[in-house]
Give the backbone structure.
Amino acid sequence: MLYKILAIVHKDIIAELRTKEMFSSMFVFALLVIVIFNFAFELRVANVKQVAPGVLWVAFTFAGMLGLNRSFILEKDKGCLEGLLLAPVDRSAIYFGKMLGNLIFMSVVEAIVLPIFWILFNPPLFSPALILVIVLGTVGFAGVGTLFSAIAVHTRAREVMLPILLFPIVVPLMIAAVKITGGLLDGQPLSEMRNWLNLLVGFDVIFLTVSYMTFEYVVEE
Amino acid sequence: MNTRSFAASNVLNGVTALAVLVALYLALVYAPPAANLVGAAQIAQRIFYFHVPSAWVGFLAFFVTFVASIAYLWKGGRHWDVLALSSVEIGLVFTTMVVTTGPLWAKPTWGVWWVWADPKLSTVAVLWLIYFAYLMLRNTVDDEARRARLAAVLGIVGFLDVPIVFGAVRWWGQGIAHPIVFGSGGLRGSPRMLSTFLFCLGAFTLLYVALLIQRVRLEGMRHEVEGLKLRIHES
Protein backbone atom coordinates (compact mmCIF):
# COMPACT_ATOMS: atom_id res chain seq x y z
CA MET A 1 0.00 0.00 0.00
CA LEU A 2 2.66 2.50 1.05
CA TYR A 3 4.75 1.56 -1.95
CA LYS A 4 1.80 2.22 -4.27
CA ILE A 5 1.09 5.58 -2.67
CA LEU A 6 4.72 6.58 -3.05
CA ALA A 7 4.69 5.46 -6.67
CA ILE A 8 1.86 7.91 -7.40
CA VAL A 9 3.65 10.70 -5.53
CA HIS A 10 6.83 9.88 -7.46
CA LYS A 11 4.93 10.10 -10.75
CA ASP A 12 3.49 13.52 -9.84
CA ILE A 13 6.87 14.88 -8.79
CA ILE A 14 8.57 13.71 -11.98
CA ALA A 15 5.80 15.19 -14.12
CA GLU A 16 6.12 18.48 -12.26
CA LEU A 17 9.92 18.55 -12.45
CA ARG A 18 9.72 18.23 -16.23
CA THR A 19 7.63 21.37 -16.70
CA LYS A 20 7.78 23.21 -13.35
CA GLU A 21 4.55 24.79 -14.56
CA MET A 22 2.50 24.30 -11.44
CA PHE A 23 5.25 25.19 -9.03
CA SER A 24 6.21 28.45 -10.72
CA SER A 25 2.60 29.60 -11.07
CA MET A 26 1.83 28.79 -7.42
CA PHE A 27 4.97 30.56 -6.24
CA VAL A 28 4.45 33.69 -8.30
CA PHE A 29 0.79 33.82 -7.34
CA ALA A 30 1.58 33.60 -3.62
CA LEU A 31 4.07 36.44 -4.00
CA LEU A 32 1.51 38.51 -5.87
CA VAL A 33 -1.05 38.01 -3.12
CA ILE A 34 1.43 39.24 -0.53
CA VAL A 35 2.46 42.26 -2.61
CA ILE A 36 -1.11 43.24 -3.45
CA PHE A 37 -2.36 42.89 0.11
CA ASN A 38 0.63 44.82 1.34
CA PHE A 39 -0.36 47.79 -0.81
CA ALA A 40 -4.08 47.36 -0.21
CA PHE A 41 -3.76 47.39 3.58
CA GLU A 42 -0.81 49.70 4.11
CA LEU A 43 -2.90 52.72 3.19
CA ARG A 44 -5.64 52.17 5.81
CA VAL A 45 -4.30 49.91 8.53
CA ALA A 46 -1.99 51.60 11.05
CA ASN A 47 -0.17 48.44 12.09
CA VAL A 48 0.42 46.14 9.14
CA LYS A 49 1.34 43.31 11.51
CA GLN A 50 -2.33 43.04 12.46
CA VAL A 51 -3.22 41.83 9.00
CA ALA A 52 -0.05 39.78 8.46
CA PRO A 53 -1.49 36.39 9.59
CA GLY A 54 -4.47 36.82 7.29
CA VAL A 55 -2.29 37.81 4.35
CA LEU A 56 -0.04 34.81 4.91
CA TRP A 57 -2.94 32.35 4.93
CA VAL A 58 -4.70 33.91 1.99
CA ALA A 59 -1.43 33.61 0.05
CA PHE A 60 -1.03 29.96 1.06
CA THR A 61 -4.60 28.93 0.29
CA PHE A 62 -4.93 30.85 -2.97
CA ALA A 63 -1.66 29.42 -4.23
CA GLY A 64 -2.74 26.00 -2.99
CA MET A 65 -5.94 26.39 -4.98
CA LEU A 66 -3.93 26.82 -8.18
CA GLY A 67 -2.00 23.65 -7.48
CA LEU A 68 -5.11 21.66 -6.60
CA ASN A 69 -6.77 22.75 -9.82
CA ARG A 70 -3.89 21.40 -11.89
CA SER A 71 -3.70 18.21 -9.85
CA PHE A 72 -6.63 16.43 -11.51
CA ILE A 73 -6.94 18.45 -14.71
CA LEU A 74 -3.60 17.03 -15.83
CA GLU A 75 -4.82 13.52 -15.10
CA LYS A 76 -8.14 14.04 -16.81
CA ASP A 77 -6.98 15.77 -20.00
CA LYS A 78 -4.43 13.17 -21.02
CA GLY A 79 -6.64 10.27 -19.99
CA CYS A 80 -4.26 9.43 -17.15
CA LEU A 81 -7.10 9.15 -14.65
CA GLU A 82 -8.51 6.14 -16.49
CA GLY A 83 -5.04 4.64 -16.44
CA LEU A 84 -4.74 5.20 -12.72
CA LEU A 85 -8.16 3.67 -12.12
CA LEU A 86 -7.28 0.63 -14.23
CA ALA A 87 -3.98 0.14 -12.41
CA PRO A 88 -4.08 -2.57 -9.73
CA VAL A 89 -4.14 -0.12 -6.84
CA ASP A 90 -6.76 0.73 -4.27
CA ARG A 91 -8.82 3.90 -4.75
CA SER A 92 -7.58 5.04 -1.35
CA ALA A 93 -3.98 4.67 -2.55
CA ILE A 94 -4.81 7.05 -5.40
CA TYR A 95 -6.35 9.49 -2.94
CA PHE A 96 -3.42 9.46 -0.54
CA GLY A 97 -0.93 9.58 -3.40
CA LYS A 98 -2.53 12.64 -4.98
CA MET A 99 -3.02 14.21 -1.55
CA LEU A 100 0.62 13.72 -0.58
CA GLY A 101 1.70 15.17 -3.93
CA ASN A 102 -0.43 18.26 -3.36
CA LEU A 103 0.86 18.53 0.19
CA ILE A 104 4.46 18.42 -1.03
CA PHE A 105 3.90 21.07 -3.71
CA MET A 106 2.15 23.37 -1.27
CA SER A 107 4.84 22.84 1.37
CA VAL A 108 7.66 23.66 -1.03
CA VAL A 109 5.91 26.87 -2.08
CA GLU A 110 5.26 27.76 1.56
CA ALA A 111 8.86 27.11 2.51
CA ILE A 112 10.01 29.68 -0.05
CA VAL A 113 7.23 32.20 0.51
CA LEU A 114 7.59 32.24 4.30
CA PRO A 115 11.09 33.83 4.43
CA ILE A 116 10.03 36.41 1.85
CA PHE A 117 6.97 37.17 3.94
CA TRP A 118 9.27 37.54 6.92
CA ILE A 119 11.42 40.09 5.12
CA LEU A 120 8.46 42.12 3.87
CA PHE A 121 6.36 42.17 7.04
CA ASN A 122 9.19 41.87 9.56
CA PRO A 123 7.29 40.11 12.37
CA PRO A 124 8.93 40.03 15.81
CA LEU A 125 9.97 36.41 16.13
CA PHE A 126 10.12 33.08 14.45
CA SER A 127 9.04 29.97 16.29
CA PRO A 128 8.92 26.25 15.55
CA ALA A 129 5.29 26.34 16.74
CA LEU A 130 4.48 28.35 13.63
CA ILE A 131 5.84 25.56 11.43
CA LEU A 132 3.56 23.12 13.26
CA VAL A 133 0.52 25.32 12.60
CA ILE A 134 1.41 25.73 8.94
CA VAL A 135 1.85 21.98 8.54
CA LEU A 136 -1.46 21.21 10.26
CA GLY A 137 -3.29 23.85 8.22
CA THR A 138 -1.76 22.66 4.96
CA VAL A 139 -2.57 19.01 5.66
CA GLY A 140 -6.24 19.85 6.22
CA PHE A 141 -6.38 22.08 3.15
CA ALA A 142 -4.67 19.55 0.88
CA GLY A 143 -6.72 16.71 2.37
CA VAL A 144 -10.16 18.09 1.64
CA GLY A 145 -8.81 20.02 -1.37
CA THR A 146 -7.73 16.82 -3.15
CA LEU A 147 -11.27 15.43 -2.81
CA PHE A 148 -12.80 18.64 -4.16
CA SER A 149 -10.23 18.84 -6.93
CA ALA A 150 -11.41 15.41 -8.08
CA ILE A 151 -15.03 16.62 -7.87
CA ALA A 152 -14.38 19.87 -9.74
CA VAL A 153 -12.57 18.15 -12.63
CA HIS A 154 -15.75 16.26 -13.48
CA THR A 155 -17.83 19.42 -13.81
CA ARG A 156 -18.18 21.62 -16.86
CA ALA A 157 -16.81 24.72 -15.12
CA ARG A 158 -13.76 22.93 -13.60
CA GLU A 159 -11.33 25.65 -12.44
CA VAL A 160 -14.22 27.90 -11.44
CA MET A 161 -15.97 25.26 -9.35
CA LEU A 162 -13.04 24.37 -7.09
CA PRO A 163 -12.82 27.61 -5.05
CA ILE A 164 -16.63 27.85 -4.85
CA LEU A 165 -16.83 24.35 -3.39
CA LEU A 166 -13.69 24.39 -1.27
CA PHE A 167 -13.57 27.81 0.41
CA PRO A 168 -16.82 27.55 2.42
CA ILE A 169 -15.68 24.17 3.74
CA VAL A 170 -12.25 25.40 4.87
CA VAL A 171 -13.62 28.45 6.73
CA PRO A 172 -13.07 26.88 10.18
CA LEU A 173 -9.57 25.80 9.16
CA MET A 174 -8.77 29.36 8.08
CA ILE A 175 -10.16 30.84 11.30
CA ALA A 176 -8.11 28.50 13.48
CA ALA A 177 -4.91 28.87 11.44
CA VAL A 178 -5.09 32.68 11.30
CA LYS A 179 -5.99 32.86 14.99
CA ILE A 180 -3.00 30.75 16.09
CA THR A 181 -0.61 32.48 13.68
CA GLY A 182 -1.76 35.85 15.03
CA GLY A 183 -1.36 34.67 18.60
CA LEU A 184 2.18 33.43 17.92
CA LEU A 185 3.11 36.75 16.29
CA ASP A 186 1.81 38.50 19.43
CA GLY A 187 4.15 36.35 21.51
CA GLN A 188 1.55 34.04 23.05
CA PRO A 189 2.72 30.50 23.81
CA LEU A 190 1.02 27.69 21.91
CA SER A 191 -0.30 26.13 25.13
CA GLU A 192 -2.63 29.11 25.59
CA MET A 193 -4.28 28.33 22.28
CA ARG A 194 -4.90 24.68 22.98
CA ASN A 195 -8.55 24.79 21.85
CA TRP A 196 -7.60 26.25 18.45
CA LEU A 197 -4.94 23.60 18.01
CA ASN A 198 -7.53 20.93 18.85
CA LEU A 199 -9.87 22.40 16.26
CA LEU A 200 -7.14 22.31 13.64
CA VAL A 201 -6.22 18.69 14.43
CA GLY A 202 -9.90 17.74 14.61
CA PHE A 203 -10.56 19.28 11.19
CA ASP A 204 -7.60 17.38 9.71
CA VAL A 205 -8.67 14.05 11.18
CA ILE A 206 -12.37 14.38 10.30
CA PHE A 207 -11.89 15.57 6.73
CA LEU A 208 -9.01 13.26 5.88
CA THR A 209 -11.18 10.36 7.00
CA VAL A 210 -14.28 11.53 5.13
CA SER A 211 -12.29 12.36 1.99
CA TYR A 212 -10.64 8.95 2.07
CA MET A 213 -14.03 7.25 2.50
CA THR A 214 -15.85 9.17 -0.25
CA PHE A 215 -13.04 9.50 -2.81
CA GLU A 216 -13.89 6.26 -4.62
CA TYR A 217 -17.43 7.51 -5.38
CA VAL A 218 -15.97 10.67 -6.93
CA VAL A 219 -13.51 9.03 -9.35
CA GLU A 220 -15.67 6.00 -10.20
CA GLU A 221 -16.65 5.87 -13.87
CA MET B 1 -48.32 8.76 -7.15
CA ASN B 2 -51.75 7.12 -6.89
CA THR B 3 -54.99 9.03 -6.36
CA ARG B 4 -55.21 8.13 -2.69
CA SER B 5 -51.81 9.58 -1.75
CA PHE B 6 -52.50 12.49 -4.07
CA ALA B 7 -55.63 13.31 -2.07
CA ALA B 8 -53.68 12.91 1.17
CA SER B 9 -51.02 15.34 0.01
CA ASN B 10 -53.76 17.81 -0.96
CA VAL B 11 -55.20 17.61 2.55
CA LEU B 12 -51.72 18.20 3.93
CA ASN B 13 -51.36 21.28 1.72
CA GLY B 14 -54.68 22.66 2.99
CA VAL B 15 -53.76 22.07 6.63
CA THR B 16 -50.35 23.66 6.07
CA ALA B 17 -51.83 26.76 4.44
CA LEU B 18 -54.22 27.16 7.37
CA ALA B 19 -51.44 26.62 9.92
CA VAL B 20 -49.23 29.27 8.31
CA LEU B 21 -52.11 31.77 8.34
CA VAL B 22 -52.80 31.06 12.01
CA ALA B 23 -49.06 31.35 12.72
CA LEU B 24 -49.10 34.79 11.08
CA TYR B 25 -52.01 35.89 13.29
CA LEU B 26 -50.38 34.52 16.44
CA ALA B 27 -47.03 36.15 15.72
CA LEU B 28 -48.39 39.57 14.76
CA VAL B 29 -51.49 39.95 16.97
CA TYR B 30 -51.88 37.29 19.64
CA ALA B 31 -48.36 37.30 21.09
CA PRO B 32 -47.88 40.14 23.58
CA PRO B 33 -45.23 42.79 22.85
CA ALA B 34 -41.95 42.15 24.65
CA ALA B 35 -42.19 44.09 27.91
CA ASN B 36 -38.47 44.76 28.25
CA LEU B 37 -38.13 46.34 24.78
CA VAL B 38 -39.31 49.66 23.34
CA GLY B 39 -39.93 51.21 19.93
CA ALA B 40 -38.63 49.56 16.81
CA ALA B 41 -36.83 46.83 18.78
CA GLN B 42 -40.15 45.81 20.32
CA ILE B 43 -41.80 45.47 16.91
CA ALA B 44 -38.77 43.75 15.44
CA GLN B 45 -38.91 41.15 18.22
CA ARG B 46 -41.90 39.59 16.44
CA ILE B 47 -39.53 38.52 13.63
CA PHE B 48 -38.32 35.94 16.12
CA TYR B 49 -41.45 33.80 15.59
CA PHE B 50 -40.57 33.31 11.92
CA HIS B 51 -36.79 33.68 12.12
CA VAL B 52 -36.09 30.82 14.51
CA PRO B 53 -38.47 28.31 12.86
CA SER B 54 -36.86 29.16 9.49
CA ALA B 55 -33.44 28.40 10.94
CA TRP B 56 -34.76 25.13 12.38
CA VAL B 57 -36.23 24.09 9.03
CA GLY B 58 -32.95 25.03 7.28
CA PHE B 59 -30.93 22.75 9.56
CA LEU B 60 -33.54 20.00 9.35
CA ALA B 61 -33.54 20.17 5.55
CA PHE B 62 -29.74 19.93 5.33
CA PHE B 63 -29.77 17.09 7.81
CA VAL B 64 -32.26 15.23 5.60
CA THR B 65 -29.92 15.83 2.66
CA PHE B 66 -27.02 14.49 4.73
CA VAL B 67 -28.90 11.28 5.54
CA ALA B 68 -30.22 10.91 1.97
CA SER B 69 -26.69 11.42 0.59
CA ILE B 70 -25.28 8.67 2.80
CA ALA B 71 -28.16 6.41 1.80
CA TYR B 72 -27.52 7.12 -1.88
CA LEU B 73 -23.82 6.25 -1.71
CA TRP B 74 -24.49 3.23 0.44
CA LYS B 75 -27.59 1.72 -1.15
CA GLY B 76 -27.99 3.56 -4.46
CA GLY B 77 -31.39 4.39 -5.89
CA ARG B 78 -32.46 7.55 -7.66
CA HIS B 79 -35.10 8.43 -5.06
CA TRP B 80 -32.41 9.17 -2.45
CA ASP B 81 -30.79 11.61 -4.83
CA VAL B 82 -34.12 13.28 -5.57
CA LEU B 83 -34.80 13.59 -1.84
CA ALA B 84 -31.36 15.12 -1.23
CA LEU B 85 -31.78 17.67 -4.03
CA SER B 86 -35.34 18.60 -3.02
CA SER B 87 -34.36 19.09 0.58
CA VAL B 88 -31.40 21.33 -0.32
CA GLU B 89 -33.60 23.58 -2.46
CA ILE B 90 -36.14 24.05 0.33
CA GLY B 91 -33.43 24.41 2.96
CA LEU B 92 -31.77 27.11 0.90
CA VAL B 93 -35.03 29.08 0.68
CA PHE B 94 -35.46 28.96 4.45
CA THR B 95 -31.80 29.78 5.08
CA THR B 96 -32.23 32.80 2.82
CA MET B 97 -35.18 33.81 4.99
CA VAL B 98 -32.97 33.48 8.06
CA VAL B 99 -30.23 35.70 6.69
CA THR B 100 -32.74 38.35 5.57
CA THR B 101 -34.92 38.43 8.70
CA GLY B 102 -31.83 38.31 10.95
CA PRO B 103 -30.35 41.68 9.85
CA LEU B 104 -33.84 43.26 9.87
CA TRP B 105 -34.08 42.35 13.53
CA ALA B 106 -30.47 43.14 14.35
CA LYS B 107 -30.49 46.72 13.05
CA PRO B 108 -33.01 48.13 15.59
CA THR B 109 -31.81 45.80 18.36
CA TRP B 110 -28.01 45.67 18.07
CA GLY B 111 -27.70 48.86 16.02
CA VAL B 112 -25.94 47.05 13.17
CA TRP B 113 -27.14 44.84 10.34
CA TRP B 114 -24.55 42.15 10.74
CA VAL B 115 -22.02 40.94 13.34
CA TRP B 116 -19.46 38.44 12.08
CA ALA B 117 -18.45 37.54 15.62
CA ASP B 118 -21.86 36.00 16.32
CA PRO B 119 -21.51 32.23 15.83
CA LYS B 120 -25.07 31.60 14.64
CA LEU B 121 -24.99 34.39 12.09
CA SER B 122 -21.67 33.35 10.59
CA THR B 123 -22.54 29.66 10.62
CA VAL B 124 -25.74 30.28 8.67
CA ALA B 125 -23.85 32.46 6.18
CA VAL B 126 -21.30 29.70 5.55
CA LEU B 127 -24.09 27.13 5.39
CA TRP B 128 -25.81 29.18 2.71
CA LEU B 129 -22.60 29.31 0.67
CA ILE B 130 -22.03 25.56 0.96
CA TYR B 131 -25.50 24.63 -0.26
CA PHE B 132 -25.58 27.26 -2.96
CA ALA B 133 -22.38 25.62 -4.21
CA TYR B 134 -24.23 22.29 -3.99
CA LEU B 135 -26.82 23.49 -6.50
CA MET B 136 -24.13 25.01 -8.72
CA LEU B 137 -22.27 21.71 -8.70
CA ARG B 138 -25.38 19.86 -9.82
CA ASN B 139 -25.89 22.32 -12.66
CA THR B 140 -22.39 21.76 -14.04
CA VAL B 141 -22.40 17.96 -14.23
CA ASP B 142 -24.11 16.40 -17.26
CA ASP B 143 -24.07 12.69 -16.49
CA GLU B 144 -26.96 11.85 -14.16
CA ALA B 145 -25.32 9.12 -12.08
CA ARG B 146 -22.12 11.08 -11.69
CA ARG B 147 -24.06 14.22 -10.71
CA ALA B 148 -25.84 12.27 -8.00
CA ARG B 149 -22.58 10.80 -6.66
CA LEU B 150 -20.67 14.10 -6.58
CA ALA B 151 -23.62 15.90 -4.99
CA ALA B 152 -23.94 13.19 -2.34
CA VAL B 153 -20.28 13.60 -1.37
CA LEU B 154 -20.78 17.35 -0.98
CA GLY B 155 -24.02 16.76 0.93
CA ILE B 156 -22.05 14.71 3.46
CA VAL B 157 -18.90 16.86 3.70
CA GLY B 158 -20.93 20.08 3.85
CA PHE B 159 -23.09 18.98 6.74
CA LEU B 160 -20.12 17.67 8.75
CA ASP B 161 -18.56 21.10 8.39
CA VAL B 162 -21.46 22.90 10.09
CA PRO B 163 -20.68 22.09 13.76
CA ILE B 164 -16.98 22.81 13.14
CA VAL B 165 -17.77 26.24 11.70
CA PHE B 166 -20.05 26.93 14.65
CA GLY B 167 -17.36 25.91 17.17
CA ALA B 168 -14.72 27.98 15.42
CA VAL B 169 -16.80 31.16 15.31
CA ARG B 170 -17.96 30.71 18.90
CA TRP B 171 -14.36 30.67 20.16
CA TRP B 172 -13.35 33.41 17.82
CA GLY B 173 -16.01 36.00 18.52
CA GLN B 174 -16.53 37.36 21.99
CA GLY B 175 -18.87 40.00 20.62
CA ILE B 176 -22.64 40.20 20.71
CA ALA B 177 -24.42 36.91 21.17
CA HIS B 178 -27.92 35.84 20.23
CA PRO B 179 -30.46 36.43 23.01
CA ILE B 180 -31.73 33.40 24.88
CA VAL B 181 -35.49 33.81 24.85
CA PHE B 182 -36.68 30.71 26.64
CA GLY B 183 -34.95 28.59 29.22
CA SER B 184 -32.69 29.41 32.15
CA GLY B 185 -31.09 32.84 32.12
CA GLY B 186 -33.26 33.93 29.21
CA LEU B 187 -35.64 36.82 28.76
CA ARG B 188 -38.39 34.64 30.25
CA GLY B 189 -40.97 35.06 27.56
CA SER B 190 -44.58 34.88 28.66
CA PRO B 191 -46.65 31.67 28.18
CA ARG B 192 -48.42 33.33 25.24
CA MET B 193 -45.06 33.97 23.59
CA LEU B 194 -44.01 30.38 24.17
CA SER B 195 -47.22 28.92 22.72
CA THR B 196 -46.97 31.23 19.68
CA PHE B 197 -43.38 30.18 19.15
CA LEU B 198 -44.15 26.48 19.43
CA PHE B 199 -47.08 26.81 17.04
CA CYS B 200 -44.89 28.62 14.48
CA LEU B 201 -42.25 25.92 14.84
CA GLY B 202 -44.87 23.28 14.09
CA ALA B 203 -46.37 25.24 11.18
CA PHE B 204 -42.97 25.74 9.55
CA THR B 205 -42.07 22.08 9.95
CA LEU B 206 -45.38 21.18 8.31
CA LEU B 207 -44.62 23.63 5.51
CA TYR B 208 -41.27 21.92 5.00
CA VAL B 209 -42.86 18.48 4.75
CA ALA B 210 -45.56 19.71 2.36
CA LEU B 211 -43.02 21.45 0.11
CA LEU B 212 -40.73 18.43 0.18
CA ILE B 213 -43.51 16.08 -0.93
CA GLN B 214 -44.48 18.38 -3.79
CA ARG B 215 -40.87 18.89 -4.86
CA VAL B 216 -40.17 15.16 -4.90
CA ARG B 217 -43.40 14.61 -6.85
CA LEU B 218 -42.40 17.27 -9.35
CA GLU B 219 -39.04 15.59 -9.89
CA GLY B 220 -40.80 12.26 -10.45
CA MET B 221 -43.07 13.86 -13.04
CA ARG B 222 -40.14 15.52 -14.76
CA HIS B 223 -38.41 12.17 -15.00
CA GLU B 224 -41.56 10.59 -16.41
CA VAL B 225 -41.91 13.31 -19.05
CA GLU B 226 -38.30 12.81 -20.10
CA GLY B 227 -38.92 9.08 -20.44
CA LEU B 228 -42.00 9.71 -22.57
CA LYS B 229 -40.09 12.15 -24.79
CA LEU B 230 -37.42 9.53 -25.30
CA ARG B 231 -40.03 6.98 -26.32
CA ILE B 232 -41.56 9.40 -28.83
CA HIS B 233 -38.14 9.91 -30.39
CA GLU B 234 -37.57 6.19 -30.60
CA SER B 235 -40.91 5.33 -32.22
About this structure: Residues 2-219 of chain A form one domain.
